[in-house]
Amino acid sequence: MIIFITGGARSGKSNKAEEIAKKYGQNVLYVATAKAFDSGMKDRIKKHKERRPKEWGTKEIYKNFIELEKDEEFLKSDIILFDCLTLMVTNLMLDADENYDEISMDRVNEIEKSIKSEVSDLIALINKYNKKMICVSNEVGMGLVPAYMMGNIFRDIAGRMNQLMAKESDNVIFMVSGLPINVKGEI
């Protein structure tokens, strides 16, 4: 079972995901995809950690999800809280170490294919082990067109990964100002 929670920045996505995880799982594994690049992100990570129950396990991982098959904490977990898909996309794009102002579309397509493979592996792993997963992601398609090429590429790739996750999810929730709107299924 996959619950996909999306919405804008600071819309309450993570809070909602944590609320659902507390309700549905006794043994929660929090999969954190963030990297602490700057003081703002370090503060955000710190606040997320402080908010989570101490008994929840945490894995800081944004790729190679298939390796979780060998992870005892993953195997014994009831529910996976994956936060967040858009940070995963960002990290994988940065891992490609490209100049996105001069990148060819063929290379962009290769990067997207690699990212899609990671998302597909995650979904397959959740299904294979019959896990419940709550996946958090930012809605990236409702704002202005980014003024720079990397932003455009990110928006397009993240938007397509959101579509893939939403399609494969049993429930989709859109968060607006801390309020949930059920888009697909009921929780």
Commentary on this structure:
The chain has 187 residues and is an alpha/beta fold. The chain has a single domain (2-184), classed as P-loop containing nucleotide triphosphate hydrolases (Rossmann fold). Helix content is 45%, strand content 21%. The protein is built from six helices and seven strands. The protein has helices at 13-24, 39-51, 72-76, 85-95, 105-128, 149-168; strands at residues 2-7, 28-32, 57-60, 79-83, 132-138, 171-176, 179-184. A seven-stranded mixed beta sheet has the order 3-2-4-5-1-6-7, sandwiched between helices. Helix 4 packs across helix 5. The chain is globular. It starts with a strand and ends with a strand. The model has no long low-confidence stretch (mean pLDDT 91).
Question: What is the strand and helix layout of this fold?
Answer:
Blueprint: E1 2-7, H1 13-24, E2 28-32, H2 39-51, E3 57-60, H3 72-76, E4 79-83, H4 85-95, H5 105-128, E5 132-138, H6 149-168, E6 171-176, E7 179-184
Parallel strand pairs: 1-5, 1-6, 2-3, 2-4, 4-5
Antiparallel strand pairs: 6-7
Helix pairs in contact: 4-5, 4-6, 5-6
Features:
21% strand, 7-stranded mixed sheet, 187 residues, 6 helices, alpha/beta, Rossmann fold
